[in-house]
Specification:
Largest sheet: 6 strands, antiparallel
Number of strands: 40
Number of helices: 63
Length: about 2000
């Protein structure tokens, strides 16, 4: 049975549990669980990280922990009862663990490893705390270390700053907001700016001396030296080294390591050095030979120096190798370090090239006790302490020190009868009062223990030696009296014996008879001579002698005149001994009563360090004098006491204040002193007003605190001794004293008056008196004193008065004092405090102090509200609210609105006091209850006041919500702020409803309320979704989701508005939309219905809700681009609003709006997801295109449309898609006109005219077209710009534009362009973005990109996609799958400009553009076998499935890919397939032969390979397979309908043979000698091939039509106007009919051909997979020049693709023909001009005009006989004719060689439609049909264009013109309009000019060549032709250019006269072609 647990509530998982049992709960080791029930060894409960999943688990897996239970029951909360630091560590480490793993994933290795080490360190420390074996001090250190590490990690991981007190986390609800702010601020400042240490220490570790000439023991002395003052700063550290240069006692670390302690900050500067002196112990001369002498001397060796500044930057111990220098002359040794510092190189040199001193140096900072804790190993291992000479900057009480330092400076000695100077050594002894040598009191320095004697070093032969050697005499205080130091001087002989001979001595007393010690300074000592063997052990024999020349009697001239002297410098550093006689006189006042007055006066002149040494004795002396002679010395003693008290205010002696406090509490015994002290103090106060000099009085008042301490303590002692006598008298004295104080404080004076300064001095010290008064008086009495005293201050405050700041400072001290913490005293003091505070805050003065006071006040209100009675606290809050709430809000507003200095943000809480005022406001609002709010709102007498208050508080709240108000990691503070705000808003919303609704409605207040609510909800700190689970749980437990609470309040307030809602439509749509985008389901459910309400009210007002729709759409883009919103929101928005409008009358329009907004969301979400990707890819561009089109077509939002145009443009530039970038920018360009309309500043465009912006766009687009090698399009824009410049007579820019245009032409001809591949991509499955889902696209590949590379790129862009391995259309399961499927294969482009591509003489550089640009249609062929496959001959059953894809826009365009709009599937029979294959090969052969003839080939190899391939395949059975398959009787019988096709195939085979024969003839002419054998082989094989085909002689029509090729460009055709029959020698040409009428075939796709079929087809056509031929089976556009099903003549000089969508408008005189040409076949009128096209049923037998038989051309016939008007079909060799008069006129002068005609063949699979025009018409251009006609930019335009009729003979002068027609191929998607050619009368000369009508047409038809985008007609989504490239109107130009002042004609858009599409959407007429631009009009 399951029993609820009572005490077992909380546990930790010891081992992982899988939870495989029924109802089992999986557990992971380390999880914390809450236990709910227990049953027979099993618990039921949940894991804290997922409280919703409950289950059972074994008891043995859980370690129970004590816990505290809150809200016991169903919603109980369990908190473990463990140390709060442990709890925090545990939760923090859990959060860190997850983030630590993410760091690994992000590859942030540095932080990953650092965090790993810190986590391990925290775990170790956690174990130490849990064990519980640490001492209190150690536990404190460990916790401090833990919290420091936790804070470091939180900062590194950008987590929140944790407020702590005493290492424990603080609950924000348990403390005041002001206290919380102070804690946060303190922690931040501690983190930001650590307090610099004032004390520093230098650690030195002597390691070794490295030198080549060692061999003697060494002594090394370190000390710190001040280079500025040339004096040592520290005593010396002494290390002994052995003969190897290493320390003699390596085991004793304290003898080789030291700490130079108590260095001040002023000592860490550049000119402070570490100086090292090295002495050697050995022979006198370093190079002397060893002798028998065993006596050793201390001799100078070397010196090293290093600056302390070199150590300031080093954080750790650094090893240094110091250079050692030696003196040039030994006498300079005393100042060698100064010479090294000053770099006097002549006086020292290196002691050896490889001599160096190895030391380790490190600067440590902080108190010595702190160092002992931080560097425990250092101190436990042993380190000597080297002290500073003198006291440190701060003298600590209790510090015991008694060190006398003596420096042996110099001596002057006589030769003593010797010929050379002496070698003098000094021996130093310290002797006590009895003359005994003191043991161990002579020290050379720290590091080595002191000795009994000290020997100085010896300078060789020097009678004036200078040692400058310092020794330390640490003599105890009690042994100082009577002690003296003796110096013995000896001459050290260098003879064999090495004797040291005594020749004199000196001595000095350490203390004088009066108790003063030896004064500091230099002393000149007398050298007393003595015999060598003199006995100095009896000191009494010389102590009576004089020791110093300074104290010799005047008559002792003998001693004064002696030359021998010895100088020493002494320095005493003692806390007990003094050198000051005045101090001693004062302390011994009883011995000399007559000196008391002088001693008291001289006390002020004594050094402070002397006074504090004897502080207690001095105070006893003063109060002793006061007690005995108060009348006589009372005033002087008081002054001395004031002097001592003020002395302790100095920072150097500040630490002695506790010593005085201890004295007052424990040692002071002046029970009667209070009377005198009060009396003297009152006397001084009464004299303040009259005194001329206030300095002394100010010193007295400055000491008020301690004077009162003495008064109060004295009174207590008296009361204790007498049982409380004279109490009333004492009280009266104090009251009188305060009356005097109030009187002097009440005086109003000038600002600069000394009395004002005296008042300020008193106010500074007054608050310190409160605590002392409380020891005797009650709280109410003291509070009364304070209130009356502060109330006596003059009320008229002036801002510039310094007293005002002091007054406020006094108030601050009062509020922070112990007195104010009492509730009773607060009631008395609060009015005074508030009055003063309010005055300052209203005038915005001393705001820093005001904030401090307010903070302290409100902290106390919170702190004591639990203990105090509720009414008292409530009364205090009332007082504060009434006085300060409004003022406080105004102050915050004024501070935050102050202009900030440049470069700073509004984070003012540290530079300014905004944060503190904000905390005060929050604390006050949090303390307010219902009653307080009611009283506050009732206090407003008028609605205007209430309105102003509400506006003010809402504004303040908006400021508090700003992100910059608190630091980023202050989340705790932000949450408290938001909790206070929402609580206050809930109170104030009632006031809003009651006072500002209905007739009292106030829009401004309501708007401010809504605005506040919206930004409240959108705060980043409230977005719980971004928090970690643990943090989210903590926030929800403490505050709930405040966003939902505020959202409900908004909804409630909105519902109360009623008809006033209209005031907020559409203004609040954007803000409310932003709220609904917050990812909180409850909030969305509450807020989304408001939109329905808005739609409803707007519908009532306007009859529609266009405003709502417009605002929604405008705001959605910006908000979603910021990352707001998601797919869930889209679905919720849709479902909630659809449900809401179900019963509305306006439901239909509502559904439309919702659908529009939903679709926009879909696209915006896709766009945002794509933009998040780092690199530019197709998905991002495609998404932008989708969104751009949506704004244009569905929403008609021009500004958003233009914005996305530029976003797309930037994406293209980033991806280096320069062509696409140009097309994109054209979309904006076409929206502009050539007008002077001013345009505002927009995006990156400045304010400028429309003309200037359009000019800039044109230039930019041209530049990008140039970079994208799309020069033909750039030429169009250049021409348009040139026209504009010309109209303005801007010839300079015009010339530049013409040069630019010329450069583009040159680039077309000179530079190589790569032809891209095209790929069809299908995106299937629901996981793709909306704009791709279940759609297929054709993509333009990058340069050099093949299918495999493209497929890999797509898979990289869609890493989760699955590549489909077949090309079949997927089924519905794939469409509906929750996955991504990619289907990719290559497709072939079907160019629109067939006439350009099939024209001979046009350079390949030009053709390459038309092959792959302006492509609407693409084809993909898949071969398959139908029926039984014949193994003997597979071609019998080899069918081709041809898929044609039509795009919504042509490629290239604004994207590299466009969606497929239409898909057509056609099956090509084996016979048709064979026809296409052979026809393609014939075309290839013709082109190669033509190139060879025109010398365009660099070598003949391509022709050789092609000939070889075709002939070899034919000989080996290629064509024979076709014969076997289709020419056999069975096939002809079974397929009677294919008769014509079979004939066609036969013709093509004969034609191929004919072309081969001609090609071999050309080949023979150009073949090099080494390839002759191959040529012979080809000729032989060709004869075999002819035999296999059964060709003995070619049929007549083949013989009569030799292959024709033009030489060179159309210009050469113009020159060679007389036709010639082209033979290998270029003899002559006879015009013949060509049999090639079957349309040219596009390439097969290699991705679909089976290898076997591909090989067989290759064999038939003579292709090999390895050869790079122009026509092969691959789908690459680079290998194709002809890919449409329509065969056009290579001699056609001008043909252009058409464009129906947005096509240019024709002139009025041409409209009729254009309109009719756009009609369907049924609608079009039948006339001579508009012949009726054939029905599909008529296509099998084409109608012919004239002779229906095939013409058999005979060279002997005359031209009129040969040429007859006949209807013929043309393909490769024929001219593609346009049936209009312009064509004939303009083409008539360009003579091209005729081509062989071919018999018509109607049976092709392409279903060619033919039109006929049997009647010739007038030549007038005005009456003719004028289709748009676009020549290539490189064409010859000066000579016009010539119609090359297929029925014309070689002589053009016959004057007979035929009716021409143009075949229209469905495969190519074009249908040429029909028309008439004019009859040319008379012969036409070459290069002649056309007639007047021709000239007129040339002038009128000013049209650019093929322009950028060839648009198709699309009834669903019409996109206009870019305006910038539209056809300009045909206007007769004036004789002269227009003048500048004339109005320019703008470039008008020409609109088609009729819809270019049929009603059923089927394309029927060709796209209109742009009119040709004439050279004469340029």
């Amino acid at each position: 049975m399951w029993i609820p647990t009572e005490h077992e509530k909380y546990g930790v998982v010891l081992a992982s549990f899988r939870g495989t049992v029924q109802h089992g709960l999986p557990l992971e080791i380390g999880d914390t669980v809450q236990l709910l029930e227990k049953c027979e060894g099993w618990y039921r409960g949940f894991v804290h990280k997922n409280p919703n999943a409950k289950g059972i688990f074994p008891c043995t897996y859980i370690h129970l922990k004590n816990a505290h239970i809150k809200n016991k029951g169903q919603f109980e909360t369990v908190i473990p009862t463990e140390d709060s630091v442990i709890t925090e560590m545990t939760s923090t480490l859990r959060d860190w663990g997850a983030m630590w793993k993410r760091l690994y994933v992000k590859n942030d290795g540095d932080l990953f490893h650092r965090l790993w080490h810190v986590m391990n360190e925290i775990l170790d420390l956690r174990r130490q705390v849990l064990v519980g074996h640490l001492t209190n001090d150690r536990m404190k250190d460990v916790k401090q270390h833990i919290t420091a590490r936790l804070d470091w990690g939180n900062e590194q991981l950008s987590l929140d700053l944790v407020p702590r007190r005493e290492f424990s986390m603080v609950d924000p609800d348990e403390i005041s907001v002001t206290e919380l702010f102070k804690l946060m601020e303190h922690r931040h400042r501690k983190k930001e700016t650590p307090v610099p240490a004032s004390t520093h220490h230098l650690f030195v570790h002597m390691k070794s001396l490295m030198s080549s000439n060692l061999g003697e023991e060494l002594e090394v002395f370190f000390h710190i030296y001040d280079g500025r003052e040339n004096r040592p700063l520290s005593e010396r550290f002494f290390v002994r080294l052995n003969k190897n240069g290493v320390p003699k006692s390596p085991e004793k670390t304290e003898r080789q390591c030291t700490l130079f302690v108590d260095l001040g900050s002023s000592d860490l500067r550049k000119d402070v050095y570490i100086v090292v002196h090295i002495m050697r112990i050995g022979r006198m001369g370093a190079g002397e030979k060893k002798n028998l002498c065993s006596i050793q001397y201390r001799r100078p060796f070397g010196c090293a120096v290093i600056s302390i500044a070199d150590l300031l930057t080093a954080d750790s111990k650094d090893d240094h190798l110091l250079k050692v220098y030696a003196c040039t002359t030994e006498s300079e040794w005393y100042q060698i370090h100064e010479n090294i510092i000053r770099k006097v190189n002549s006086r020292y040199n290196l002691s050896g090239s490889n001599t160096g001193l190895a030391v380790s140096l490190q600067l440590l900072h902080g108190d010595i006790e702190q160092l002992r804790r931080e560097y425990m190993v250092l101190f436990t291992r042993g380190v000597s302490i080297t002290k500073k000479l003198g006291f440190s900057d701060i003298i600590m009480p209790g510090e015991m020190r008694n060190d006398l330092y003596m420096t042996l400076e110099k001596g002057e000695f006589e030769k003593g009868g010797k010929s050379v100077a002496r070698n003098v050594e000094i021996t130093v002894y310290v002797l006590d009062i009895e003359g005994q040598v003191m043991k161990s009191y002579v020290a050379a320095g720290s590091g080595e223990p002191g000795g009994d004697v000290y020997h100085s070093f010896v300078l060789y032969h020097n009678n004036s030696p200078r040692w400058a050697e310092q020794i330390k005499l640490p003599i105890p205080v009690d042994m100082f009296r009577g002690s003296h130091v003796r110096f013995e001087f000896r001459h050290c002989s260098t003879k064999d014996k090495g004797e040291k001979k005594l020749f004199g001595y000196s001595f000095v007393h350490l203390m004088q008879e009066d108790g003063r010690t030896l004064p500091d300074g230099t002393h000149e000592l007398i050298i007393h001579k003595c015999e060598e063997n003199a006995n100095l052990q009896d000191s009494s024999c010389y102590l009576k002698l004089p020791f110093s020349k300074a104290n010799l009697p005047g008559n002792n001239q003998a001693v004064k005149g002696t030359k021998e002297c010895f100088w020493i410098t002494s320095f005493l550093c003692s806390t007990k001994l003094t050198q000051n006689g005045d101090m001693l006189d004062l302390l011994k006042w009883r011995a000399h009563p007559e000196r008391i007055n002088d001693s008291l006066l001289k006390l002020k002149e004594i050094d402070g360090s002397e006074i504090v040494k004897f502080l207690q004795d001095t105070l006893d002396t003063l109060f002793g004098i006061l007690d005995e002679s108060s009348q006589r010395y009372g005033l002087k003693v008081f002054d001395c006491l004031v002097h001592i008290i003020n002395l302790l205010q100095d920072s150097k002696f500040h630490h002695f204040k506790p010593v005085m406090d201890t004295y007052i509490e424990s040692h002071f015994a002046g029970a009667l002193s209070y009377r005198d002290l009060i009396k003297v103090l009152k006397w001084y106060v009464d004299r303040i007003i009259d005194a001329e000099h206030q300095d002394h009085i100010q010193q007295v008042l400055n000491a008020t605190e301690y004077i009162f301490k003495y008064i109060i303590q004295s009174r207590r002692l008296f009361a204790l001794a007498t049982g409380g006598q004279s109490e009333e008298e004492f009280r009266c004295c104090v009251h009188e004293l305060f009356m005097s104080i109030r009187f002097f404080l009440s005086q109003e004076n000038k600002i600069t008056s000394p009395i004002t300064q005296t008042q300020a001095v008193f106010l500074r010290t007054f608050p310190a008196v409160y605590g002392e008064l409380l020891k005797i008086f009650t709280v109410r009495e003291v509070a009364g004193f304070v209130r009356e005293t502060l109330g006596s201050l003059p009320a008229t405050a002036r801002a510039e008065c310094p007293l005002e700041a002091v007054k406020l400072h006094c108030i601050a001290k009062t509020v922070e004092s112990q007195l104010y913490t009492n509730t009773e005293s607060r009631c008395i003091l609060l009015p005074v405090v508030l009055r003063l505070l309010q005055a300052h805050m209203q005038e915005q003065r001393d705001l820093v102090m005001c904030a401090r006071i307010l903070t302290s006040m409100l902290s106390l209100v919170r702190k004591y509200d639990s203990t105090a009675t509720e009414p008292v606290v409530s009364e205090e809050v009332d007082l504060i609210v009434d006085s300060l709430l409004v003022v406080l809000m105004r102050t915050i507003l004024e501070i935050t609105n102050r202009p900030q200095a440049a470069g700073t943000n509004m984070r003012l809480q540290f530079q300014d006091i905004t944060g503190e005022f904000v905390a005060c406001l929050l604390a006050l609002l949090r303390q307010m209850s219902d009653k307080h709010y009611q009283q506050l709102l009732q206090a407003f007498t008028s609605k205007d006041d209430l309105r102003d208050f509400l506006l003010q508080i809402f504004t303040v709240f908006r400021i508090l919500i700003r992100p910059e108000m608190f630091l980023k990691d202050w989340t705790v503070m932000r949450l408290v702020t938001n909790n206070v705000i929402i609580t206050t808003v809930l109170y104030l919303s009632d006031a809003l409803r009651k006072n500002f609704l209905n007739d009292k409605f106030d829009y401004k207040v309501w708007d401010s309320y809504f605005y506040l609510s919206v930004i409240f909800i959108n705060q980043p700190c409230l977005q719980l979704e971004s928090f970690s689970p643990s943090k989210k749980k903590r926030v929800l437990e403490k505050y709930g989701d405040m966003r939902v609470m505020m959202g409900c309040e908004i909804f409630s307030m909105w519902q109360n508005l009623g008809e006033h809602k209209l005031n907020f439509i559409p203004a609040m749509i954007g803000p409310f939309l932003e709220v609904t985008l917050v990812p909180q389901p409850d909030l969305r459910n509450v807020m989304i219905p408001i939109f329905h309400d808005m739609m409803d009210w707007e519908q009532r007002r306007s009859g529609n809700f266009k405003q709502v729709e417009a605002k929604l759409i405008d705001k959605l883009d910006g908000l979603m681009s910021e990352g707001k919103g998601d797919e869930t929101y889209r679905e919720l928005f849709n479902s909630i609003l659809l449900k809401k409008i179900e019963r509305e009358t306006w439901r239909e329009s509502g559904v439309s709006l919702i659908a529009t907004v939903t679709r926009l969301m879909e696209r915006l979400l896709d766009y945002r997801d794509c933009v998040k990707l780092g690199e530019v890819d197709g998905k991002k561009i495609g998404c932008t295109v989708s969104l751009l089109n949506f704004y244009k077509t569905e929403l008609n939002k021009e500004e958003m449309y233009i914005r996305y145009i530029h976003k797309l443009y930037e994406l293209h530039l980033k991806a280096q898609n320069y062509t696409e970038a140009s097309y994109t920018l054209l979309l904006y360009d076409e929206l502009l006109e050539w007008s002077e309309r001013p345009l505002r500043e927009f995006l990156n465009y400045p304010m400028q005219s429309e003309w200037q912006r359009k000019e800039y766009l044109h230039l930019t687009i041209v530049q990008n077209f140039d970079r994208g090698k799309c020069w033909e399009n750039g030429i169009i824009l250049c021409r348009e710009l040139a026209d504009q410049y010309e109209s303005y007579y801007d010839y300079r820019n015009l010339s530049k534009m013409r040069m630019m245009e010329a450069s583009l032409y040159e680039k077309i001809m000179d530079q190589q362009r790569l032809e891209p591949e095209f790929f069809r991509v299908g995106f299937y499955g629901k996981k793709f973005p909306f704009f791709l889902r279940n759609k297929e696209f054709v993509c333009r590949g990058h340069d050099y990109e093949r299918l495999e590379a493209f497929q890999q790129r797509m898979l990289n862009e869609f890493p989760h996609a699955i590549a489909m391995q077949h090309v079949n259309q997927p089924d519905q399961t794939i469409y509906q799958a929750e996955a991504q499927y990619l289907q990719i294969y290559a497709v072939s482009p079907i160019p629109e400009s067939q006439d350009v591509l099939q024209r001979d003489g046009v350079a390949d550089n030009i053709k390459s553009f038309y092959k792959v640009n302006h492509i609407w249609r693409f084809r993909y062929d898949r071969p398959f076998h139908k029926g039984t496959k014949d193994k003997e001959n597979e071609f019998k059953s080899l069918w081709v499935e041809r898929t044609s894809l039509t795009l919504v826009q042509s490629l290239p365009g604004i994207s590299r890919w466009f969606e497929v709009e239409k898909r057509e599937l056609v099956e090509v029979s084996p016979l048709e397939n064979a026809i296409e294959v052979i026809e393609n090969k014939n075309l290839q052969l013709r082109m190669l032969i033509a190139q060879c003839q025109s010398r365009q080939m660099q070598n003949i190899n391509p022709l050789t390979m092609c000939l070889n391939g075709v002939i070899d395949a034919a000989v080996n059975g290629g064509l024979a397979r076709y014969q076997e398959a289709f020419f056999v009787k069975d096939y002809i019988v079974n397929h009677p309908e294919d008769g014509e096709k079979i004939g066609r195939l036969r013709e093509l085979m004969f034609e191929q043979a004919h072309i081969l024969e001609y090609g071999l003839a050309v080949h023979e002419k150009f073949v090099p000698q080494d390839m002759r054998p191959l040529h012979k082989k080809l000729v032989d094989q060709f004869h075999v091939m002819k035999s296999s085909l059964g060709i003995q002689e070619f049929p007549a029509y083949v013989r009569a039509s030799p292959v024709h090729f033009t030489n060179g460009s159309p210009r050469s055709s113009c020159r060679n106007s007389v036709p010639n029959i082209i033979s290998p020698d270029g003899a002559r040409v006879v015009a013949r009919r060509s049999p090639l009428t079957y349309p040219a075939v596009n390439r097969y796709s290699s991705s679909s051909l089976s290898s076997q079929a591909s090989n067989e087809v290759s064999n038939i056509t003579g292709q090999s997979e390895s050869s790079d031929e122009v026509f092969n089976m691959q789908p690459s556009p680079s290998t194709s020049s002809l890919s449409s099903n329509h065969s056009a003549s290579p001699n056609v000089t001008s043909s252009a693709p058409s464009s129906t969508r947005g096509s240019p408008q024709l002139q009025d005189k041409h409209k009729h023909s254009r309109e009719n040409s756009c009609l369907s076949s049924r609608e079009r009128p039948v006339s001579a001009i508009y012949p009726n096209p054939l029905d599909p049923a008529q296509r099998a037998t084409p109608h012919q005009t004239g002779d229906t038989t095939l013409p058999r051309s005979d060279p002997n016939l005359s031209a009129p006989d040969k040429v007859r008007p006949t209807f013929s079909s043309w393909s490769l060799d024929s001219v593609k004719e346009v049936n209009n008069t312009q064509f004939s006129d303009t083409v008539g002068k360009l003579l091209c060689p005729p081509v062989p005609p071919r018999p018509p063949y109607p049976g092709s699979s392409a279903k060619t439609i033919r039109s006929q025009s049997p009647v010739p018409t007038s030549r007038s251009p005005q009456k003719s049909s004028l289709p748009p006609f676009t020549p290539s930019p490189t064409e010859c335009q000066s000579a016009g264009l010539v119609s090359n009729s297929p029925v014309l003979s070689g002589s053009y002068s016959s004057g007979i013109s035929s009716m021409s027609r143009c075949s229209v191929s469905e495969a190519s998607g074009t249908e040429a309009t029909t028309g008439d050619h004019p009859a040319h009368q008379g012969p036409t000369m070459p290069n002649s000019v056309s007639s007047g009508s021709d000239e007129l047409i040339r002038r009128e038809n000013k049209t650019p060549p093929p322009y950028s985008v060839y648009e198709r007609t699309n009834p669903r989504r019409p996109v206009p032709l870019p305006h910038s490239l539209s056809i300009p109107p045909s206007v007769d130009p004036p004789a002269l250019p227009p003048k500048p002042h004339q109005q320019r004609t703008s470039s008008m858009k020409l609109v088609p006269a009729s819809d270019p599409r049929r009603a059923d959407g089927v394309p029927h007429v060709p796209r209109p072609r742009p009119l040709p631009r004439k050279v004469s009009q340029l």
